[in-house]
Amino acid sequence: MKPSSAPFIKYFTYLGLLCAGLFLLSACGRFDTIPYDPSTSPTAWLTIQPFVEFKLAGQNIILMQPSTTAFVYLLGLLTAGLGCYFLFRQNGQRARLWWGVALVLWGLGALLAGTSYEAFSYAIKCAGRETCIWTSWWEILYLIATVWSFDAMILAVAYSSANGWLRRILVLYALLNGLIYFGFVMAGAFLPVKYWISFDMLIVVSTPGILLSLLVNGWRWFKTRDSLELALLGTWLWLGITIAAYFLYYLSGLTGVLWARGFWFSENDVLHIFLIAWMIYIGWTVGPLLKDYS
To answer: How far, in Å, CA of 282 to CA of 273, rounded?
Structure first.
């Protein structure tokens, strides 16, 4: 029987209303008073990274980091598309529902991040200012979408790999984590508190849930040798490798070395390429096997 599109439309209506509400909240924040560190002028912004300038509808457009922008937008569209597939092909499985929500949120977050960190960072953070600012509402929404994506993945694990008291613990953890993090981000945006709206805080908040999911899937695979549990275990291991690769490249200082030679390849490129491979892995190995734990 052909699946109805009504639930699919309902989820995206809710997501649209949620995004609109978050936009209105974040637009009132005071995070635009946090200067970029080190202090950087708009002119200097254009010298520390590649950009292209072109006209569109009579307006001059400055597109920053073109290659990195291409990678992150590809990641966002690929991930959101995969999430839509999971949502449209739920087959009554809550694990597929929550993986779909998680991937749509992740894809949305990637598009938001790519817009502010890369593509239009000059227009958003620098244009018309004496010095560039550190963050923007695009990035605030990215942080929320990404952490909520991780929380939705935990909910998916709760339904695919647990039952009874363990499922209740996972569901409660995911809901509380998402709610508490949202409170910290909103407080960080309004007060403002730089660390609460940083990527470092995102990693700190997300890591326990990743490790918890890794332990649940690892334990279930050790106990049952189930193919789905092995695929999910591989999901978390690959994500761990991705994060490690990002930080190793960042600490290596290769971005500056290569840019000095006219070649732009940053730690964000490493992150996005590994994440694109991660999404392909999820669609190829997890997707066909994913179902609720009875």
So the answer is: 14
4, part of any domain: no
101 contacts: CB under 8 Å, gap ≥ 6: 11, 83, 87, 149, 152
Is 185 part of any domain?
yes
Segments in 37-136 forming alpha helices (H)? 42-45, 66-88, 94-113, 121
Give the pLDDT band of residue 3 (cuts 50, 70, 90).
very low
Tell whether the model's pLDDT for residue 120 goes beyond 70.
Answer: yes
**Which amino acid, one-letter code, is at 126?**
C
Q: For 124-158, how does the pLDDT look when each residue is reduced to its tens digit (9 = 90+)?
A: 999 999 999 999 999 999 999 999 999 999 999 99
Residue 121's CATH number:
1.20.1070
pLDDT the model gives residue 190: 87
Could you tell me if 102 and 210 are in contact, meaning their C-beta atoms sit under 8 angstroms apart? no
Q: 13 in a domain, yes or no?
A: no
Paired strand residues for 35: 133
- Looking at every residue in the chain, the average pLDDT score rounds to 92
One-character DSSP codes across 170-224: HHHHHHHHHHHHHHHHHHHHHTT-TGGGSHHHHHHHHHHHHHHHHHHHHHHHHHH
- Residue 262 backbone class (left: φ over 0; alpha: ψ -120 to 50; beta: rest): left
Domain for residue 51, yes or no?
Answer: yes
Higher pLDDT among residues 234 and 57, named by residue: 234
Q: What is the mean predicted confidence (pLDDT) over 67-85?
A: 97
Q: How many domains does the chain have?
A: 1
Question: Which residue range(s) make up the domain with 76?
Answer: 28-286
Structure tokens at 1: 């029987």
Give the pLDDT confidence score for residue 1 in this predicted structure.
Answer: 40
Beta-carbon count within 10 A of 173 CB = 17
Look at residues 34, 32, 41 and name the one whose alpha carbon lies nearest to residue 132.
41
Phi, psi of 139 (to 5 degrees): -75, -35
